[in-house]
Amino acid sequence: MKLAFRSKIGSTERLWRCPVAPASRRKHLRTNPTCLFTGIVQGKAQVQSISSLGSKVAEWDGDTYDMRTFKVAFPKNSGYGDMSTVTIGASIALNGTCLTVTETDLAGNTATFDVIEETLKRTNLGSLREGSAVNFERSARVGDEIGGHTVSGHVQTTARIDSVTTGDGKTRMDFSLSDPFWKKYVLQKGFVSIDGCSLTVGETTGEGGFCVYLIPETLRVTVLGDKAVGDFVNVEVEAQTQAIVDTVERVLAEREANMH
Question: Can you give the pTM of this predicted structure?
Answer without folding.
Answer: 0.80
